[in-house]
Amino acid sequence: MTRRRVLASGLALVVLAAVVVAGVLVVRRLATSPQERYCATVVAQRAALSDRLSAGTPDVLITALPVFEDLQDDAPSDITDEWRQVVDAIRGLRDALDATGVDPATYDRTDPPDGVGTAETQRIDDAAGVLGSQETSAALADLDQQARDLCRTPLTQ
After folding, report:
1. CA distances (Å), origin 18, targets 31, 33, 110
2. Which one, of 143, 154, 37, lies nearest residue 90 by Cα?
């Protein structure tokens, strides 16, 4: 066998192995229930969510948004409304801050940056009000309880 033929055979085996592994992963993904996928995501994201939430910075929820979005993506159908409430509220605040050109980590409502007038401050206040609302707080509490009941673990460490 020529060297070229050996390399081609080796490459073909690597490609075939990759296809087989990918197929196994797809079958495993399809074989698990939505609850199992969600619980796997909860467990996988607990540390990241805990780290981001413990930062104590004013933009803590905005920095945690990608983790919340991952959890929302894998959530079972019975808690999609709660995830939508939480994620949409965080996105709303992020979008209000972005639209006004305000850095969420340094924004001070009592001393807004130059160029941020009453209308911009009101938009940010409204979005913050939705995020801090009873409805959003209840949704987050329900999601944590769901994780404890279904996955036997809280959302954070």
Report:
1. 20, 25, 57
2. 143
Q: List the chain pLDDT tens, one digit each, 157 residues.
A: 554 443 334 343 333 333 433 443 443 354 388 899 999 999 999 999 999 988 888 889 999 999 999 999 999 999 999 999 999 999 999 999 999 998 998 888 888 888 889 999 999 999 999 999 999 999 999 999 999 999 999 999 8
Annotate 22-34 with b (16+ C-beta within 10 A) or e (fewer): eeeeeeeeeeeee
Cβ burial, residue 76 (10 Å; 0-12/13-18/19+):
middle
The rounded Cα 40 to chain-centroid distance in angstroms is: 14
**Tokens read off for 67:** 């983790």
Instruction: Say what the pTM is.
Output: 0.76
Residue 74 host element (H or E): helix 65-74
Contact between 91 and 99 (Cβ < 8 Å): no
User: Under a CB-based contact definition with an 8 Å cutoff, are residues 68 and 90 in contact?
Assistant: yes
